[in-house]
Amino acid sequence: MTNSGLPDEDSTPRRGARIRNSKEDLTPMRKFLKNPIVAFFVDILSIVATALVLSLLIKTFLIRSFFIPSGSMLNTLQINDRIVVNELVPNVVPIERGDVIVFRDPGGWLGAVSTKQVPWTTQVTDWFLSSFGVTAPDSDVHLVKRVIGMPGDHVVCCDANHKLTVNGVEITEPYIMPGTSPSATKFNVTVPANSVWVMGDNRDNSEDSRYHQDLPSKGFVNFKFIVGRAFVITWPFSHFTWLDNYSSTVFKNVPSVLQNAPKP
Length: 264
Prior knowledge:
four-stranded antiparallel sheet; 12 strands; 20% strand
């Protein structure tokens, strides 16, 4: 400040100098990130990383995608169809008769497991793409069938009309492969607690509960092996459809006897 009361020239803030100094103070990394091209790619990577995290959370707790490797569910599901599975079933959302479910091998259903070595690059690629639902590399170690019997249900094949009965009620099944009978194999079972009796819609070509009664599981699938309920076919798009469980038609008159379910 001079004697005249005016600011001293030396004490006047130099705005241009401050701005110039701030630019000069930028670290090499900050200069690098301020590059428009670099900033663009950083944004893209952030979006991909966020999408990957969300996809992994959804895949772990909500829904998963699988493809159909065999014809055991024809004509409902075609070979190589892609389905989406609700993983909240059965732990949060109750399972119902008629549901199409995906489950892990309860033991002995798939025979010997292949130990073929897969290149690590393929494993990484499959993991990444499966996170976004593009591939489903573990589909061939899961099974997909339709729930016919719930805990406590008495399921019998067949009555005088050559149809299945559930708790004494005859059911007419519109979803089975045309030209096939409900079952060429006779059986008479009562489903234990926390388990289901499952059958493929292509009854003449389905290794389901009927053919595993000699195993420790006796052909039943415990809830702990169930991944979830398939509710939609998403690919190919020409096959897109919601999957019905026929609860209001086929199984409408079947009484529930859950309280009578035997212990496994």
